[in-house]
Structure formats: C-alpha cells, structure tokens
Design brief:
Layout: H1 23-26, E1 45-49, E2 56-59, H2 60-69, E3 73-78, E4 85-89, H3 91-108, E5 114-119, H4 125-140, E6 144-150, H5 159-172, E7 177-179, E8 184-186, E9 189-196, H6 201-218
Parallel strand pairs: 1-4, 5-6
Antiparallel strand pairs: 1-2, 3-4, 6-9, 7-9, 8-9
C-alpha cells in the first residue's frame, strides 16, 4: 500500500489571534445558561422591567438600544408571557443572583430521610430499649422514624399486643418526635410514623408546663364547699 506524500499546509502567523466573540453583547454566556439575551431574543416586542428603565412594552430594537445605552444586557426572563418579559441588567450579576437564590433554596429544603425500626410482637425489654435508643438518635438527627411490628405466621393473633407496643414506643419518644398516625395494620405489618420535633418545640412544651401550675397558683376563685 503506497502512502500519499505529506504536504504541509500554510503555517499560521505567530502574531495571529483568534477573532474575538461578542463578549459584551452576549454577556459571557455559555452553553449551560438558559436565558436568551440581546440578539438571541427573537420576539418582535418585549415588556421591559428593571431598576433604571421606564417599564412598558417596547419594540425589540428599541429595547436593545435602551440596554446598550445603559451598558447593560437585555435578558429574557419570561419567554411564555405575552409579550415576553425582559430585564435590563448586567448579565453576570443576573447569573450571580440566580446561583445565590438556588443555593439558598437548596439550603432551606431538607432531604427527607426515613429510618425503619422493626419489632416482633413479643419483643423483650432489652431489645426494646436498644431500639428506643436508636430511634432517639435518628430523631435528633432530623430523620423520620418508621416503626413497625412484623407478624409472622400465627403471631398475627398478637396484633393487639403489637399495637400496645407501638403506642408505648411513640409515648417514650414524645420528647423527641410527634406521632403522625396511629398504628395501621397493612398485611403482616402494623406501622406508625414519627416525625422529629422542630428546634424550639421542647422549650415551648417546657414553658407551657411551667405556666400551668402558676396559673393554678394565681387562681383565687374560692373552692366550692
């Protein structure tokens, strides 16, 4: 097999530079961005919003001139509106505010974690206390606790005993969590769900307990004879 002779092409001049993109006009936009800006906006007219503009509906050419005159970008923020809504502001600042807002929302939203604890209908005291300790730890960490009694074979005859066990479990966890539902029998399982108490709820409960005797003490209503 004969190889074709190598013919080098013209060399690029050492002082040559790549053509510059429209960084100002495009606002430094990359492929991950979702908001159309400036010349990318295809609507014939838009509604302008922003701090330094007179809000209203403008032809797209006039809206672009307004943004250019302020040395800012025209950013499409509501493409589904009639007409589409555009904000006049610096695009980098706009993206920074979006990232900040997304970070705040992520911090506020907590991932739901459910921990399961299984009992038998005739759980002994040592096993019960061991699982109670684990449940307290889960609730302190902010996780929900799904506790259930599993009835195997003829042990379904002890379902009342399983219900008493679950209600005792919920009562022993009252300081750390609240019972979302009473025991429910689903197939071979009787289940309860306990949610962790919000921070500060313990203080409110303690305050209510402290206030109750005080009210009785200050009650000067004479007792019936």
């Amino acid at each position: 097999m004969n190889k074709k002779p190598y013919r080098p092409g013209p060399k690029r001049p050492s002082n040559a530079t790549r053509p510059k993109g429209r960084n100002r006009q495009m606002g430094g936009k990359n492929d991950k961005d979702t908001n159309a800006i400036n010349d990318e906006i295809r609507a014939s007219e838009v509604r302008l919003v922003g701090d330094n503009v007179e809000q209203g509906i403008y032809p797209i050419d006039q809206a672009l001139k307004i943004a250019e005159g302020l040395e800012l970008d025209l950013i499409l923020i509501a493409p589904q509106a009639e007409p589409p809504v555009c904000r006049v502001m610096d695009y980098q600042k706009f993206k920074f505010q979006q990232r900040k807002h997304a970070k705040e929302q992520k911090a506020k939203s907590t991932k739901l974690v459910v921990k399961e604890i299984r009992f038998g209908p005739q759980t002994d005291e040592h096993d019960y206390n061991f699982k109670l300790k684990h449940a307290i730890g889960f609730l302190k960490e902010g996780a929900k606790v799904k506790s259930y009694v599993f009835f195997k074979g003829r042990s379904i005859l002890f379902k009342e005993q399983g219900e008493v066990l679950l209600l005792r479990f919920a009562n022993d966890l009252e300081e750390y969590g609240k019972l979302d539902q009473m025991p429910v029998l689903e197939g071979k399982r009787m289940t309860i769900m306990i949610s962790p108490k919000k921070p500060g709820s313990k203080k409110k409960d303690a305050q209510a307990a402290d206030d109750a005797p005080q009210q009785d003490k200050n009650d000067n209503t004479p007792a019936e004879e």
